[in-house]
Each structure stands twice: as structure tokens, then as C-alpha cells.
Amino acid sequence: MDFLTVMGYGQSLVFLLIQVAAFLASLTALIHAAIQRPDAFTAVDRQTKVIWVSILTAASVFTLFFSISSAGSILAIAGIVAALVYLVDVRPRVDSIQGRSWFRKHG
């Protein structure tokens, strides 16, 4: 094996790890959105629960079936962005309005 072959395998492994992490993040966001009260989304001035569950379902499908290194990479990237927007912006607001907290210890 030459150096370029090894680097190619390394690059493929990194893309695979990113894809798996993106899928797990989008699936986590989907599960979180699905178990929340519908009124919590409108109370924090965000899209409705139905819209977020739909977006995150599409994001999960995109990150599962499309790699960021393939022809469908724009769909995978869109899925990653949607999951990150939910996890970073919407989830904390929905949790705070309901007095819950995911991913944080109660102290």
C-alpha cells in the first residue's frame, strides 16, 4: 500500500464517522421533538411541533442515506444543519418553557 491509498482510507473513515455522528444527532433531535408538548413550540415563537418533526424526519433520512462525500452531499449537509439548529436553538427554549433539561445534570 502506498501513502495515497492509506490517506484515502483515512478520509473515508472520517466521512463515515461524521455521517454516523450526524445521523445520531438528527435522530436524537427527532426523538426529543416528538415527545414534547405541541404548545411548547409555539410558546417559544418557533415553528409548530408538526413542522419540526417533519424537518427532523427528513434530516434523519438525509443523514442516513446521503454521505457528505457523495453526489447527494447537499442533502446530507441540509440534514446536519437542520439537526444542529434544533439542538442548539429550539431544544433549549422548549426545555426551559417546560422546566425540563436534556443533556444537563440537575444540581
Briefly say what this structure is:
The protein has 107 residues and is mostly helical. It is built from 4 helices and no strands.
Can you characterise this structure?
The protein is an all-alpha fold. Helices cover 76% and strands 0% of the residues. The protein has four helices and no strands. It has helices at 3-34, 38-43, 49-65, 73-98. The protein starts with a helix and ends in a 9-residue tail after the last helix.
Set out the fold topology:
Elements: H1 3-34, H2 38-43, H3 49-65, H4 73-98
Rg calculated over all Cα atoms: 17 Å
Strand content: under 5%
> Mean pLDDT, rounded to whole units?
89
- Major β-sheet profile: none
N→C terminal distance: 53 Å
Q: How many distinct beta strands?
A: 0
The total of helices stands at 4
Helix content: over 70%
Spell out the helices and strands N to C: HHHH
Shape, per Cα inertia axes = elongated
What would you call the structural class?
mainly alpha
Q: What descriptors fit this protein?
A:
107 residues, mainly alpha, 0% strand, elongated
